[in-house]
Specification:
Length: 146
């Protein structure tokens, strides 16, 4: 569907959603536990946490970056002891990247900190707005996966 095919109300809603998601995302990024990691590095660790071990090529596709860029990101994360590279079980030319226990702990603390921050924001909502937020959460999650 083309955006011009949407009703004026739907176009306004899409614009409002885009703006709100961008502002909220920017504010969430400031709630990081480890300021030494770039948003891209955090995203790669999050992908490994959600999807499990992957080759650098698979990570590059999931993160929408070029394979050489992902190789550099993985090397930086490995230098910080946040990922490890193991031989691929079926292809000796490949490696499999996995997160370390240190990365798991850091991500858990980051999620906790961001959840606390978001929960505090929702205290400013009334009961109806919180109900709408609960109903919208699965839809937003679906949009994030498309």
């Amino acid at each position: 569907m083309n955006v011009t095919e949407l009703s004026e109300d739907d176009r306004a809603a899409v614009n409002s959603l885009r703006s709100a998601v961008m502002r909220l995302s920017r504010r969430l990024r400031h709630q990081r536990v480890d300021e030494s990691l770039s948003p891209t590095e955090m995203s790669v660790l999050g992908t490994l946490a959600r999807c499990g071990s992957a080759t650098p090529g698979e990570l590059a596709r999931k993160e929408h970056v070029q394979p050489p860029s992902m190789t550099r990101i993985v090397a930086m994360l490995e230098a910080k002891d946040l990922v490890r590279r193991d031989p691929h079980p079926d292809d000796r030319r490949q490696v499999v990247v996995s997160q370390t226990e240190q990365a798991e702990a850091m991500l858990a603390e980051s999620r906790r900190k961001r959840n606390v921050w978001l929960a505090q924001l929702t205290e400013g909502l009334d009961d109806d707005e919180r109900a709408l937020l609960r109903a919208a959460a699965p839809v937003l999650e679906k949009l994030a996966q498309l």
